[in-house]
């Protein structure tokens, strides 16, 4: 059992409150996943630049690391974010691997920042100052581990492509075969978690030209098991439940936002929820919103 939350803003007026709203939603889902938590926030970016979210051991000196590679790193507890010219991304990644092999790149993109750690969701959100973050959309996850260890590597979200991330409640029965397919296509899945396989599968489909909506449609035939996915891209937000839909899910839509949660109580504190269209997403139906549309 895990908890999923997501918030996609249609209007700029709520963007300064995005982090505070998601933090509240994440905290309410604590009892569905007290082992670890994480979130991805799509905030402001700079044209021609890529944000790299880094994760290091406790005590990592991100300031010194930034000085060594020639790009300042903004530290947030065990994570750090640096913005580099897109043309220099490969060189910076190589420098990081050489200078600090214990530090991992956990997310990359024009706008996405990704944070996750072991611990209670409220504590994880507080450590990374989620309540102060702004942006257009965000997704979060609270994990109760059932098939792999309680580690930061096993925490969600998983990101396997630029500005792409996924959170998942459920279990995939054919993840080993899909993992082998992805390896042949050059997509490495580094954790034991089947959710990372799902994230990499969507990246594989979108590399081939699919939109997020099309990639989710294809997953209905290629991913076997029970699942609810919430996915973020640079401009989009998608939701999909398996054909049986045995994992709980509820959504709310107003003129200002679209929100998702595993249970309604995580939506109850959102502004305007009393007049929102509240509904249960249908089985095997792709829901997708895009700010570029």
UniProtKB/TrEMBL annotation:
This protein's record includes keyword Transmembrane helix: no
Keywords associated with the record: Glutamine amidotransferase, Transferase
Claim: Repeat is one of the keywords in the record: no
SUPFAM superfamilies cross-referenced by the UniProt entry: N-terminal nucleophile aminohydrolases (Ntn hydrolases)
Any one GO molecular-function label of the UniProt entry: transferase activity
Domain of life: Bacteria
CDD domains named in the record: GlxB
Pfam families hit by this protein: GATase_6
Name by which UniProt lists this protein: Glutamine amidotransferase
């Amino acid at each position: 059992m895990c908890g999923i939350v997501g918030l996609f803003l249609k209007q700029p007026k709520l963007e300064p409150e995005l982090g505070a709203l998601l933090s509240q939603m994440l905290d309410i889902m604590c009892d569905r996943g007290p082992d670890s938590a994480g979130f991805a926030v799509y905030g402001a970016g700079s044209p021609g630049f890529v944000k790299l979210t880094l994760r290091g051991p406790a005590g990592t000196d991100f300031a010194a690391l930034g000085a060594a590679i020639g790009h300042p790193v903004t530290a947030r507890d065990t994570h750090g974010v640096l913005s580099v010219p897109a043309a220099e991304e490969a060189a910076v990644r190589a420098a990081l691997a050489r200078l600090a092999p214990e530090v991992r790149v956990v997310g990359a993109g024009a706008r996405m920042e990704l944070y996750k750690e072991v611990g209670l969701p409220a504590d994880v959100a507080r450590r990374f100052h989620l309540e102060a973050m702004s942006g257009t959309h965000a997704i979060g996850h609270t994990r109760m581990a059932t098939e792999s260890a309680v580690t930061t590597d096993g925490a969600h979200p998983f990101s396997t492509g630029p500005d792409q991330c996924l959170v998942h409640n459920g279990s995939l029965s054919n993840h080993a075969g899909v993992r082998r397919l992805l390896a042949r296509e050059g997509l490495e899945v580094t954790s034991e978690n089947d959710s990372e396989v799902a994230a990499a599968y969507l990246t594989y489909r979108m590399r081939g030209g699919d939109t997020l909506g099309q990639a989710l449609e294809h997953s209905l035939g290629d991913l076997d098991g029970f699942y609810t996915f919430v996915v973020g891209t640079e401009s989009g937000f998608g939701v999909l439940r398996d054909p049986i839909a045995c994992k709980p899910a509820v959504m709310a839509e107003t003129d200002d936002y679209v929100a998702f949660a595993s249970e309604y109580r995580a939506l109850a504190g959102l502004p305007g929820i009393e007049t929102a269209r509240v509904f249960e997403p249908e089985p095997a139906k792709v829901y997708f919103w895009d700010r570029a549309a």
